[in-house]
TrEMBL record:
Matching Pfam families: Aminotran_1_2 (PF00155)
Protein name: Aminotransferase
Organism of this sequence: Aminomonas paucivorans DSM 12260
Alphabetical GO biological process terms: amino acid metabolic process
SUPFAM superfamilies per UniProt: PLP-dependent transferases
Major enzyme class: transferase
Listed EC numbers: 2.6.1.-
Keyword Transferase: yes
Length: 391
């Protein structure tokens, strides 16, 4: 029988990250440094808030755009933390930052519209752009520039078909934190070329050096920015599936209408727990921040101490994106060899665009002792590579 699946979805394939997760799930005794989620459980007080919400009868459908109390709390958070003032109508609660990005591309892209993605980028963006008929246009953020893009490199790829640009600072996978001057340069481009900027700020709580500058706080940018935020990382709530987007009503309204027919609303109990988290969870977030700051430092020190590997110290997020070219292996071969021979799972750079085939991402989402154990396991394999003359 001829395939009935829509042609643009016939080519759907799991990313190399998903393949790695799948392979790792079949084996035991591994040290898994591939998962982009805090290993720490959600604070028990947040879990208790969910239980209470259930007992109080918040078990019905919620408004599709989110309960007003939570939308108000999100608005309050961005106002007091960053001075970003948005009215309630410009806050939409979603099933994670992932759904926020998906809806944004769905609402904004006509077939053939171009979307600038800064490489290395979070895997989902390119897939989501493609699913919605857009064309992903990569711009490389060079390692020697701390994985921060150069404004002139972005300008060079802009065409009359460019509709959107995706920012992700702090960045998954590079750990880069974009400085204000660069963001201002991008803002000038956005204004001149009439671009919508999707600014995925899911890691805003995890900045260790420099400051987090929400793109929408730059002069004139609120009307052309969708700010994606979440609870997955800041409150260790990955499995709860809640996030949000702040942006112009003209864009949020159709996103909301699409979300209604997809999911009706975000889980009502989870929304109550998220409200509790925003109102009471700052000390927990602070603890997560300090924990991951120490771990990424430990990880980059450990990696730099291994033969053939090099990296900088990430300024944010909880990833280290390191160069393996001196081992003589591609990132893909390196990651598979470490899985097979050292029992350590990491994600090859190819999962984050095509420009970093000799990089690998490590997620510092295990305790420091475990990181050190992983480096201990990797060392003899790397020494073997050096002996063979590759490194
Ligand atoms: C940059 C980035 N954006 C979005 C997401 C998705 O987050 P959520 O759990 O809120 O859907 C992730 C998850 O790893 C991420 O790293």
């Amino acid at each position: 029988m001829r395939s009935k699946v829509v042609s643009r979805f016939r080519c759907l394939e799991p990313s190399s990250m998903m393949k790695m997760f799948k392979e790792a799930s079949k084996r035991s005794g591994l040290i898994n440094l591939s998962l982009g989620e805090p290993d720490v459980p959600t604070d028990p007080s947040i879990v208790e808030a969910l239980r209470q919400a259930g007992l109080e009868g918040h078990t019905h459908y919620a408004p599709s755009s989110g309960i007003p109390e939570l939308r108000g709390a999100i608005r309050g958070y961005w106002s007091r933390t960053y001075g970003l003032e948005v009215p309630l109508e410009q806050v939409l609660v979603t099933n994670g930052g992932s759904q926020a990005c998906h809806l944004a591309f769905q609402v904004l892209l006509e077939p053939g519209d171009e979307v600038v993605l800064l490489e290395p980028y979070f895997t989902f963006y390119a897939q989501q752009v493609c699913y919605h008929g857009g064309v992903a246009v990569p711009v490389v953020c060079r390692e020697e520039n701390g994985f921060v893009p150069r404004v002139e490199d972005i300008e060079r790829v802009l065409t009359p078909r460019t509709k959107m640009l995706v920012l992700n600072s702090p960045c998954n996978p590079s750990g880069a934190v974009f400085d204000r001057a660069t963001l201002q340069g991008i803002a000038d481009l956005a204004e001149r070329h009439d671009l919508i900027v999707l600014s995925d700020e899911l890691y805003e709580s995890f900045v260790y050096e420099g400051e987090h500058v929400p793109f929408a706080t730059l002069p004139g940018m609120r009307r052309r920015t969708l700010t994606v935020g979440g609870f997955s990382k800041s409150f260790a709530m990955c499995g709860w599936r809640i996030g949000y987007v702040l942006g112009p009503e003209e864009i949020l309204r159709p996103m909301d209408l699409l979300a209604i027919v997809q999911t009706l609303c975000v889980n009502s109990l989870v929304q109550r727990a998220a409200l509790y988290a925003l109102e009471n969870g700052a000390p927990f977030t602070r603890r997560l921040h300090d924990l991951f700051r120490d771990r990424v430092r430990c990880a980059s020190e450990g990696l730099n101490g291994l033969p053939g590997l090099s990296c900088g110290v990430p300024k944010g997020s909880f990833y280290v994106f390191f160069d393996v070219s001196r081992t003589g292996l591609s990132g893909e071969d390196f990651a598979w060899r470490m899985l097979e021979e050292a029992g350590v799972v990491m994600v090859p750079g190819g999962a984050f665009g095509t420009s970093f085939p000799h990089h690998v991402r490590l997620a510092a989402t295990v305790p420091e002792e475990r990181l050190r154990e992983a480096f201990g396991r990797m060392k003899p394999v790397l020494e073997g590579l050096v002996r063979d003359g590759a490194a």
